[in-house]
Amino acid sequence: MASQPILFSGVQPTGGGIMLGNYMGAIRNWVKLQDSYNCLFCVVDLHAVTVRQEPARLRELSYRNAASYIACGIDPERSLVFMQSHVPAHAELAWLLTCNTWMGELSRMTQFKDKSAKGENIGTGLFTYPSLMAADILLYQTKIVPVGQDQKQHLELARDLAIRMNNTYAAKAKEPLLTVPDVYIPPVGARIMSLSDPLKKMSKSDDDPAGTVFLMDTDAEIEKKFKRAVTDSMNRIAVSDEQPGVKNLLTIQSVITGESPEACAAALEGQGYAKLKGRTAELVIETLRPIREKVHQLMDDKTYLDGVLKRSAEAASARAEKTISRVKEAMGFVTR
Ligand code: AMP
Ligand code: TRP
Questions:
Q1: Which of 143, 204, 225, 247 is catalytic?
Q2: Which residues, 6 or more positions from 48, have their beta carbon under 8 angstroms from its beta carbon?
Q3: pLDDT, one tens digit for every residue, the chain (336 residues)
Q4: 209-296 in CATH: which number?
Q5: Minimum CA distance residue for ligand 2 atom 13
């Protein structure tokens, strides 16, 4: 395992918890890749506090994220599952990278523009968020980062920062300071859209919960959300950008069945939208039910979860320390 290339990814413990878009765009692919990589799966709680969080809720959701990773199929015997805040090196490298990140680069980030457009008091952490994300990745000499489409721009910054740090502080060194990571975006499911507004991406922090299917929704809630999913009046089951609602449902089916969205459309030829919604709901319910049950089980066993988190944080810290001390030495800090 130690010789395998390194994979790092994470989800924020925010909003209504992990939802279908996180599962399809990210976590499902973590599970698929976990045999071929040396994996670190992080609950990115330091990222969560870039916007105000209610403390008890943050704690609950952080546990639930860890439980959800495991329930979705991450094996904590093989992969590390840990809290970002348990490994202080994340914040430390983030500072060193922040000092090498340009205002212009951060100002161009679309996630910052979107999130800051909503509120009045914008914390500076929201602005420097991408440098922290780069630190998460670069700390472990990560080779691959499986994420949804919306994280592509952040990944590009992480690559630029790795190259910049190598050129600035280790141009003559035998080995680069930091590995330049690649992004992994799945061919289907990288951008699941809201069920109530298929022009908007599905989000765990949407004000309107009807558009988002959460991992912890009951079967009845999932069914209801799909029944009410916004489609169109064309009455045609086909994969077309003119029909974003229908396309989204077919995409969801495709991720689960492994068939192409076109094949999922062909299987429903001549049927109405009620059938399309019903079939999609059925597939999602079957997929999420065992995961939800496992999350409940794990949440009742905090001793087990704490054990996994502690073990993983210790292993991650030891690995992170190596990078941190090399970077600090290269930048000119006095060694301790
Ligand atoms: P976040 O919810 O921002 O913490 O995102 C966690 C992971 O889920 C990231 O890899 C995102 O790219 C991915 N993700 C978030 N929303 C979606 C979506 N609507 N469709 C597909 N992937 C998503
Ligand atoms: N910014 C990511 C998101 O909102 C979460 C994240 C933080 C992340 N650090 C990461 C994802 C490192 C991959 C790798 O989805």
A1: 204
A2: 12, 13, 14, 58, 61, 62
A3: 568 999 999 999 999 999 999 999 999 999 999 999 999 999 999 999 999 999 999 999 999 999 999 999 999 999 999 999 999 999 999 999 999 999 999 999 999 998 888 777 899 999 999 999 999 999 999 999 999 999 999 999 999 999 999 999 999 989 999 999 999 999 999 999 999 999 999 999 998 999 999 999 999 999 999 999 999 999 999 999 999 999 999 999 999 999 999 999 999 999 999 999 999 999 999 999 999 999 999 999 999 999 999 999 999 999 999 999 999 999 999 998
A4: 1.10.240.10
A5: 9
Contact 67, 298 (CB under 8 A): yes
The CATH code belonging to domain 6-190+302-331 is 3.40.50.620
This prediction's pTM: 0.97
Instruction: Give the residues surrounding ligand 1 with Cβ less than 6 Å away.
Output: 11-12, 21-22, 24-26, 147-148, 150-151, 190-192, 201-202, 204
Return the C-alpha torsion angle 317, 319, 324, 330, nearest 10: 170
Does 201 participate in catalysis according to the annotation? yes
Tokens of 130: 């991408």
Which atom of ligand 1 is nearest the CA belonging to 12? 4
Domains 6-190+302-331 and 209-296 share a fold: no
Boundaries of every domain in the chain: 6-190+302-331, 209-296
Distance CA 305, CA 67 (A): 7
Query: How far does the centroid of ligand 1 lie from the alpha carbon of residue 97, in Å?
Result: 24
